[in-house]
Design goal:
There is one protein chain. It contains 2 helices and no strands. It is an all-alpha fold.
Length: 89
């Protein structure tokens, strides 16, 4: 085999220029990415839980308001029918 020159390099260029520091940092970068994605997922889960709790609170307020409005309508109808029966109109 001839002596490797620029034209007859036996190794592909990316492998020949591989930096050992990049290879050594890969596990740390991978764990950093893992921690970042895990923390983002947990944050979104907490955000969704708070949002669902707030939506439930609003729903309970609306249901209470509708119930009170219905009771007011029924009481008005009962009072009107009672006064009409007594002849008090």
């Amino acid at each position: 085999m001839a002596f490797p020159t620029a034209l007859t390099n036996p190794y592909p260029l990316p492998i020949a220029n591989l930096n050992p520091e990049v290879v050594g940092n890969s596990p740390a970068i991978a764990m950093g990415n893992y921690y970042l994605s895990t923390s983002t997922a947990l944050s979104m889960a907490a955000l969704n839980a708070v949002n669902n709790q707030q939506q439930g609170w609003v729903l309970s307020l609306v249901a209470t308001n509708q119930m009170l409005a219905q009771m007011k309508i029924e009481n008005y109808a009962i009072e009107k029918s009672t006064t009409t029966e007594r002849g008090l109109s």
